[in-house]
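thought: fold this chain, then report.
action: predict
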Amino acid sequence: VGDGVQYGFAVTGHGRDGINISCKVCHLQAPESVHFDGIAQSYDAEKDNYLRTRWLSMPLQVPVPFDSTYDRQQFGLCYACHNEARLVGLAPDYSNGLFTHSSPPPAGYPLPVDAVTTRFRNERKEGFNFSNIPANIHWDHLDMNWRAWDSDGDGTLDSKPSCVTCHDPHGVKSTADGINYPAMTYADIGIVYGQDDIGTYGEVSKTTYNERCNSCHLAVGIRYYRP
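observation:
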């Protein structure tokens, strides 16, 4: 996947140095093809065929049903390697009050942790998060209670957010404009890191992702601070 030199699975994706995950960790090879899926754009949310058309070896629920609550099994493929508590856990002083959250919370959640270490967090009032401070923004998105994502690109919002709403494990769409964005985030989000007089921040520098995600944050320059 990709040109293998400037971008792609082995350069900017999960196969790059330091991660070195092979294709078959996540995919089952299609018996009728030398590729994993011989049909372009075969996923259709209405057919609920994401797992089959991607030949995934472990569960990754796409679309995420609107009437479901957060369940780690929905993201089983990702959590096979990534630590759930490090991604979505809340420290004692963290807020779970954002209006997009499930109410009541899913049983056993939010997961308690001593400290939130994901970079996708906001700890300053100057950061954008509807005054929900401090916040683990991974948790805010994965526990979202509305249909916000057009997962198959047909123009219809059909899913709650998932990991692959924002992250491209193959590292291709995360470099679509020639820039290697952090954490394999899609180029149409344009995540950049920086520091200003307030503190260290991550910034959403583009709004083109709104074509596939009905977002609450429509302006460029939205920042989240992590002192």
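thought: worth noting. The longest helix spans residues 137-142.
final: tokens above.
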